[in-house]
Hints:
The protein is α/β, with parallel strands linked by helices. The chain is 33% helix and 13% strand. The longest helix has 27 residues, at 2-28.
Amino acid sequence: MLRILRRAIVLAGVVALTLLGVRAYDAQRGEPLEPWHTVVPDELDADEIDQTTWNGYLEAEGAAFAEVRAEVTEKLDPSERLAYNRYFDGSPVYPGHFATDWNHSYILEPDGPPSGVAVFLHGLTDAPYSMRNIARRYQQQGFVCVVIRLPGHGTVPGGLTAATWQDWMAATRLAVREGVRRSGPGVPLELIGYSNGGALALSYALTALDDSSLPRPDRLVLISPMVGVTAFARFAGLAALPAMFPAFARTAWITTLPEFNPFKYNSFPVNAARQSYLLTDFLQRKIRTHSQQNGLADFPPVLTFQSVVDFTVSTQAIVDALYSHLPGNGSELVLFDINRSSKMGLLLQPSLDVAADRLLPPPPRRFTAAIVTNDDGASRDVVERSVDAGTTVERIRALHLIYPQDVFSLSHVALPFPITDPLYGLAPAGDESFGISLGTVAARGERGALIVSLDWLLRINSNPFFAYMSDRIAAFSTAPHPAAQ
């Protein structure tokens, strides 16, 4: 028996070394790392964030951006001074030349006395830009809106090689402290999280149940929340082991791509995947613990928007790991279905035809569930099919919206942006320009000519149902707080 065990250990070691060798070899075949991959700006860690003020955080943030300018922008080789490079100060996508650089943290104040506090948490590789459309709606409703840049974001992708999920949680606590300080006592507190920010919002709310020093949120709004990630993220740290040797530094990266998006990284380090897994693991353990102890009786109502088709996060995990544990507290889940009238329908995965129905448990449920879908299989008109919590009767409401003909589904990255968004919109509007309109790209030509794969350009970047989503958020935010049932 001992001999068999030894052989198994040796075999496992040989397999592991082989896989790491293949990983190192494969990484070396790619392009060399650029300065924005190797420079890691100095940022506050979790302990320092917990000890600082909002102004102190902004000061440290400004120093990080100054470091990027000094160590990256001002040291670019002539070969890197390209029109599409966001770190080249002669580029039309260079954020430093915009009227507002939305990579930075910001606060939107209401015109009159605050009616509430809203804290916004952006997604992984993202920037505060992604939250501005929803934040403006909250501002119009009288909320103080705190939109924080999470550590490692907005500067250079290299920043995500050092950031930890504990740093992001500390930044969340800081944003809440600042929002409450500005609004004063006695007004509602809401957390709005997109993707990885959704995991942070949920984790904060769960931690606040155990820590009386943390202000408890009254409501959570989640957009494509990262409740569950792929199995690869769990073991992503192993993929970066060869990076301990300088010759294999590229193995610390899952993808290294040109950085042409002024408000989002295209490159993705292994550490970012690893931290997302650690955060969601913490979140799911917290949910299970509280669910077993008291059924999450004191948890705030949650409103979630999620595309049925999502390449980044697990849609099923939102139902199984979150909503199945929530009490009857007024929570709602909205799913955006595929476009069943799309002319691309014949090329869609057959499983998607019934995906929306299979995601949800049969009614009655403790939460309200809505599916935004075609009125019928041939119509582009969109309706909301919803079943209220505790009932089995489906209600159908016409939304007076249509699914764009060439769009077969929404995507993980599309939900926070209206189609009029100047960067990501299908139909950009307004006077703002960020040097490129990523939402209008309709690439046609020979393969191999573009600096990125067509997958990056074909993914829809804006939400044709954003107005509906915004109205749903506003109604949820102003509704009376129901007592848990």
